[in-house]
Amino acid sequence: MVLNYIWIAFFLVAFVVALVKLIFFGDLEVFPEIMDSTFATSKTAFEISLGLTGVLTLWLGIMKIGEKGGVVDALARLLSPVFVRLFPEIPKGHPVGGSMFMNVAANMLGLDNAATPLGLKAMEQLQELNPKKDTATNPMIMFLVLNTSGLTLIPVSIMVYRTQLGAAQPTDVFIPILLATFFSTFAGVIITSIYQRINLFNRVMIMTLGGLSLFVAAVMWGFMMLDKTMMSVVSTSSANIILMTVIISFIIAGMRKKINVYEAFIEGAKDGFDTAVRIIPYLVAILVGIGVFRASGAMDMIIDGIKYTVAACGIDTEFVGALPTAIMKPLSGSGARGMMVDAMTTYGADSFVGRLSCIFQGSTDTTFYILAVYFGSVGIKNTRHAVSCGLFSDLAGILAAIAIAYMFF
Asked: What is the pLDDT along the chain (409 residues), one digit of tens a residue?
């Protein structure tokens, strides 16, 4: 529903701005430019979707091997001690724990198709424990914040889009996204724990959060010791080594489980082809809307206004061009994806703005969409502090993404 209003707004605002430019400034080219953009962006969207097929097929095939090889189960077991402390109101041994573990683990691996059904199942089980059926419980809100904070270990789709749009090193945003999504999730857990008065000062949580914080601090310190060229080389090399290690680990896990690794890959690869075809109309719709908005000059007016405000505060304005992706992300995943693609198409996949838009896309998730789907599935009307915690997590991810992008690029 939110995306529906946004999409309509793109066209209506573009039309009004174009009329003003025509009537008051005599700009006779504005409407031809708008119409040209509709054809150009629809063609671009189709070409991008078609080009995604190969890479998306490869990665979803690899992910299916990991899923059947028990990697998701292993991650769930690893997360278990932490989850027990974050969800103290859930009875020990309740089956909802398994659903939540599997959902978060699937999200971390970028298995969206597996994560959503598991998340909806977890919400149903949490609702069974809910004494007030129309009001969100503390465990529900913490679970939603973990989803909206967008903790992802392997941002497959972003690397796929970067590949298709001609990035020299599609994986060069891998490390920055990992760092930004850590800050988003960390902030979400902290603020939600404060609201819910969850004690984080216990051995497991201190070791987990403290250890991760020290590791991230060490990684950032290490990269800050390098110059920009060496930082790019080390970051890209590390990302490629990690990704290749993941692929080999998934294959070995599949062999240990004695599954047919080849058949598992083919099964996942078929989903990749179907996904690439399925997103064509969505990508065409959102890119045409953004293209019309940009061609009318409305996008430039907003960006210039923000730039003027930021510059007046004495802050560098280079990051402003990527802000539409950050603003759209809490509202709509496909809308933010369209903004990311638009930024890379307009500024270049390897530009600062293009890379930052990718980090924005990977650092958080679609807060309002997730809240609507998950809470709507069980009839929750009173969301309590879920929205404020989710948006705080998004803001932390955005600020971290900007700082990290300046550090790396």
From this structure: 555 777 888 899 999 999 999 999 888 888 999 999 899 888 887 887 777 677 778 777 887 888 788 876 777 677 778 888 888 888 876 777 777 877 777 777 666 555 666 777 788 889 989 998 889 999 999 998 988 887 777 777 788 788 888 888 888 888 888 889 889 999 999 999 999 999 888 888 888 888 888 888 888 788 778 777 787 788 778 777 877 887 898 899 999 989 999 999 998 888 777 767 777 787 788 788 888 888 898 888 888 888 888 888 888 889 998 988 888 788 767 778 888 988 998 899 999 999 999 999 888 877 877 777 788 878 888 888 888 898 899 999 999 999 999 988 8
CA dihedral for 55, 57, 59, 62, sign (positive or negative): negative
The whole-angstrom separation of Cα 391 and Cα 380 is 19
- Sign of the dihedral defined by the CA atoms of residues 348, 351, 354, 359, in that order: positive
- According to DSSP, residue 382 is labeled B
**pTM of the prediction?**
0.78
Widest pairwise Cα distance in the chain: 72
Q: In degrees rounded to 5, what are phi and psi of residue 379?
A: 75, 25
- The three-class DSSP label of residue 163 is helix
Cβ atoms 134, 380 nearer than 8 A: yes
